[in-house]
Amino acid sequence: MKGSFKNIINCEKPVLVDFHAEWCGPCKAQGSIINEVAKETGSKVRIIKIDIDKNPKLSQQYQIRSVPTIVLFKDGKLLWKQSGVHSKQQLHNIINQYS
Q1: Angle (deg, nearest 10), helices 25-41 and 88-98
Q2: What DSSP string runs through 1-66?
Q3: Per-residue pLDDT reduced to its tens digit, 41-80
Q4: Are residues 58 and 39 in contact, defined by beta-carbon separation less than 8 angstroms?
Q5: N or C: which end of the chain has fewer CB within 10 A?
Q6: What's the CA gap between 40 and 88, in Å, rounded?
Q7: What share of the chain has pLDDT > 70, as a percent?
Q8: Which domains are delineated in the chain?
Q9: How does residue 1 score in pLDDT terms, banded at 50, 70 and 90?
Q10: Which pairs of Cys residues are joined through disulfide bonds in the record (predicted)?
Q11: CA atoms within a 13 Å half-sphere pointing along the CA-CB vector of 11
Q12: Would you say the pTM of this structure is higher than 0.85?
């Protein structure tokens, strides 16, 4: 996973990563918001979801301490990271700021 994750985040298009867990209630709410954002942004941004329980090394590498945590990458660089549930508007603002 690590090699392919590096390839995914190492592109010119911003990549929004949702670090989540199956057992996390707020993650489910965030997941549906992210799905809406994905439909609305189309090809402007790539959105992926990473289950922290299935990818513990990745979670450690990016110091994910709580879920959900949203991270934005561009050209392989971490540009923005914040824990908690974010509204659709907040996510659009972050994507627009870095794209």
Answers
A1: 50
A2: -HHHHHHHHSSSS-EEEEEE-TT-HHHHHHHHHHHHHHHHHGGGSEEEEEETTT-HHHHHHTT--S
A3: 989 999 999 999 999 999 999 999 999 999 999 999 999 9
A4: no
A5: N
A6: 10
A7: 97
A8: 2-98 (3.40.30.10)
A9: very low
A10: 24-27
A11: 14
A12: yes
Residue 26 identity: P
Residue 3's pLDDT is 61
Q: What percent of the chain has pLDDT over 90?
A: 92
CA distances from 14 to 57, 77, 87 (A): 22, 10, 18
Q: How far is the C-alpha of 89 from the C-alpha of 99, rounded, in Å?
A: 15
Which active-site residues does the annotation give? 24, 27
